[in-house]
Amino acid sequence: MELDTHAYNDYIGALFAPQDSALTETLAEMEREDVRKINVSGTEGKLLQILALSIGAKRILEIGTLGGYSGIYLARALPEDGKLITLEIDPHHAEVARRNFDRAGVGHQIEVRVGPAAETLQQLTQAGEPLFDLIFIDADKDGYVEYLRRSLPLLREGGLLLGDNTLPDAVLSDTEDSGTKRYNAAVAASPELTTIVIPVLRGRGIDGLTVSFKRTAAV
Ligand code: SAH
Ligand code: MG
After folding, report:
1. What is the pTM of this model?
2. For the chain, which has fewer Cβ within 10 Å, the N-terminal or C-terminal residue?
3. Is there a domain that residue 19 lies in?
4. pLDDT tens track for 175-206
5. Which atom of ligand 1 is nearest to the CA of 44?
6. Number of domains, the chain
């Protein structure tokens, strides 16, 4: 039996994540531009925003921009001098996202980098990019384990590493495999991380956000 989570998601969304015009216009622009709406839900977006706020994040890295919907939530957690770098392989998605960021009034805090994320992560490392406070992985699922390996050195101690869509059906099977199932196993095994999966509501059923804290020397 599939749990009808729609009503719960609507309740939480209406109370805690009402959609302003920047967010509804972002989704409308994605519709007009034929960008698939595989963005986070509003309620999950609000969760991302609160996680970023709670650690006082000033530098955020997102892997997988799409139309900029989750990016707007993350950018809204930043102080005025904060920065979001978001990585996207599809130039059309990047262009749509940039328009949406500008309309939302956060464009000046966001850099969209176009290219395969694994390569861009390598460039960020080589360029000696300052460390990030929060990294949100939400691109191609088969890349997650590699993104973990390449992005963990870019995260400060005490920072948060988030992985989206981490409760695929495969996690309930002994035989099935999936990129995000492998990711969960990898973060669980990492001595640098303390991790849990938070189940999040979708329109139908549930999904997961894997939340990992990069340990400091003390914990
Ligand atoms: N974070 C977005 C959703 C991202 S969907 C939101 O919630 O609003 C996943 C995105 O990852 C898509 O836009 C896709 O084009 C991009 N992507 C897929 N493979 C990629 C890769 N190898 N490198 C960078 N981006 C990639
Ligand atoms: Mg996602």
Report:
1. 0.97
2. N
3. yes
4. 999 999 999 999 999 999 999 999 998 767 78
5. 7
6. 1
